[in-house]
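Following up on my earlier thread - several people asked me to post the actual chain instead of describing it. Fair enough. Here it is, all 158 residues.
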Amino acid sequence: MANRFLVSADGIDEPAWMMNVEPFLQKVAAELEFDGQEASILFCGDKTIQELNKNYRNIDAATDVLSFENGEKFTDEDGSQWTLAGDIAVSVDTLKKNAEYFGIDENSELKRLLLHGLLHLNGYDHGEEHIEKGKAPECEMLRLQEEILLKYEGEKII
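Reply from S.P.:
Thanks for posting it. Predicted structure:
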């Protein structure tokens, strides 16, 4: 069985590259041996993600990516069993700021944020550690994230 990724935009003009997100996530999910999952990915601006962050985490600030893990099981009309992995929200405003900060292109930063969100939906956590410029990550989640990103370095979304 495959995975399903539902990609949408809110409060921003829908980027042309949005259609490339689902194929990238399919490859990464297969690499991680995630199967039978459904997740939604929302692209938004800082205003929307700040509101989500405030409402769900009590942090009144914009951020780059938020993940809302679900884990509920359901059966579709064809009788296939699925896991509702959850939702990922990505701020395209902060994505651009991050890319500039890290000195990378927006394509590389987008892949990092998508993979980061997908790992969170599957139970991975990094505690207080975050990716820092010029510093190798120590925790398992962030090491795995960076290892997988190297494998998909040539993959283009944007």
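The first strand starts at residue 4 and ends at 9. That should answer part of your original question.
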